[in-house]
Structure formats: C-alpha cells, structure tokens
Amino acid sequence: MLLLLRAIAVVFAALLICLFGTIYSLIRFKNPSNVGVVARWFGRLHPLFGIEVEHRFAENASDNGPCIYIGNHQNNYDMVTMAYMVRPRTVSVGKKSLAFIPFFGLLYWASGNILLDRDNKNKAHSTMGELAQRINQDKVSIWMFPEGTRSRGRGLLPFKTGAFHAAIAAGVPIVPVCCSNLHNKIDLNRWDNGKVICEMLPPIDTSAYSRENVRELANYCHAVMKQKIEQLDQELANRS
C-alpha cells in the first residue's frame, strides 16, 4: 500500500514540476538559471521516498564563478538527492535522447541544458570545445557526470575525460559534488529509508594541466571523490 501511495504521489509531483517548469522555462527560454530552479524543485521531493538528505555546500560556493561541476552518478534517485546541489547559472549536459522523454524532454530542452550526440564520437569530442566557448561567453557553469553512466552499486566508475578537456579549454576549475552510497538502501515499501549526504567540495584548479596530461587530472579528481564518498558512507555508518 505504501509503495502504491508513494508511486501516485511521486508521479503527480513530477508531472506538476514538468508542467510548471516547462511554462517557466518557455517564458525565460533557455535562461541559464532555469535549470537550477527546476532542479531544486525536484530536489525537494526526497521526503516522498522516505529519505532525509543533508546538503553541504562548500565555503563561499556562491563565489565559484564559471566552473564545471562533476558528480557521482548512482541511479535515478540522483534526481531527488543531488539535484538540489545545482547552483544558479548552471546547465547540464545530456544525451539527445533525453529530449524525447514524455513531459521531461521538453522541460530539459527549454530550460537550457545542452544535448549531445553520444553516438557521434567525433562530434561529441568537438563539442567539448563548444562547451568551453559557452562557459566563457555566457559566464555559465556546466554540470556533468564523468562516469558517463549510472554506477548502480559498482562504486565510482572510471572517469571519461570530456569534462576535464572542457575545463582545461575554458580555463575554469573543477568542483566535485559527492553523494553517499544509495545502492539498495531505498525500499519504497519502508517508511524510513535513512539519510543521504550530498557534499560540494572546494574547487580544483586546472591551470597546471593540458590536453597532454588531462588523464592525470581525471584520475586525481576521481581519487578525491572516491575518498570523500567513503568518508560520507563511514560517517553515516557511525551515526547508525
């Protein structure tokens, strides 16, 4: 019964957000702050899933300026955990196929997110340069999931280098955002599904890196995030 009630509530709330978010985004068509507004609406849905989310922002996070945010991509619950971490004037990068999802697709496009053709590797690679250009011209930040896919309990997967190429080309820092482990921790038939911590880390300077050693930057950021996720998991385990 609880599962059914939750499903009804979540679908109803998501449809409302998609409806009003699309209207809002069409009025302010592709305004770079649309994404953050709508993302925070989704981020407030976590009580419907029986989870408590603690959001920790880095000191002076509002002063980050243009940057590339990278997050660990676990599963579909990221929409109600990490989504609240999206800062103003930040857009995300997603597959073109997202635009064809009923209700959500129009919202994703109209709010100003960037759609990539993941099947065309040459075009996707050149798009990193276009991302860098947009960052500098429009003074926006980009949110990316460098794993490239949901980890689904496999831990932090190896990073692809696209986000790091874009950061180096734009001359902007990388800002990691980490979420504690969610795998197999949410049972929609259970009233209380515990706590999740999402934490934004201080910016990582990219000025010492180039195309030649971009993999070093990706590996360093991976190590920083892996350590932080383990710390968050241990903190929650100690509390319980």
UniProtKB/TrEMBL annotation:
<keyword id="KW-0443">Lipid metabolism</keyword>
<dbReference type="InterPro" id="IPR004552">
    <property type="entry name" value="AGP_acyltrans"/>
</dbReference>
<dbReference type="GO" id="GO:0005886">
    <property type="term" value="C:plasma membrane"/>
</dbReference>
<keyword id="KW-1208">Phospholipid metabolism</keyword>
<keyword id="KW-0012">Acyltransferase</keyword>
<feature type="transmembrane region" description="Helical">
    <location>
        <begin position="97"/>
        <end position="116"/>
    </location>
</feature>
<comment type="pathway">
    <text>Lipid metabolism.</text>
</comment>
<keyword id="KW-0808">Transferase</keyword>
<feature type="transmembrane region" description="Helical">
    <location>
        <begin position="7"/>
        <end position="27"/>
    </location>
</feature>
<dbReference type="GO" id="GO:0016024">
    <property type="term" value="P:CDP-diacylglycerol biosynthetic process"/>
</dbReference>
<keyword id="KW-0444">Lipid biosynthesis</keyword>
<keyword id="KW-0594">Phospholipid biosynthesis</keyword>
<dbReference type="GO" id="GO:0003841">
    <property type="term" value="F:1-acylglycerol-3-phosphate O-acyltransferase activity"/>
</dbReference>
<keyword id="KW-1133">Transmembrane helix</keyword>
<comment type="pathway">
    <text>Phospholipid metabolism; CDP-diacylglycerol biosynthesis; CDP-diacylglycerol from sn-glycerol 3-phosphate: step 2/3.</text>
</comment>
<comment type="similarity">
    <text>Belongs to the 1-acyl-sn-glycerol-3-phosphate acyltransferase family.</text>
</comment>
<keyword id="KW-0812">Transmembrane</keyword>
<protein>
    <recommendedName>
        <fullName>1-acyl-sn-glycerol-3-phosphate acyltransferase</fullName>
        <ecNumber>2.3.1.51</ecNumber>
    </recommendedName>
</protein>
<keyword id="KW-0472">Membrane</keyword>
<dbReference type="GO" id="GO:0006654">
    <property type="term" value="P:phosphatidic acid biosynthetic process"/>
</dbReference>
<feature type="domain" description="Phospholipid/glycerol acyltransferase">
    <location>
        <begin position="67"/>
        <end position="182"/>
    </location>
</feature>
<dbReference type="InterPro" id="IPR002123">
    <property type="entry name" value="Plipid/glycerol_acylTrfase"/>
</dbReference>
<dbReference type="Pfam" id="PF01553">
    <property type="entry name" value="Acyltransferase"/>
</dbReference>
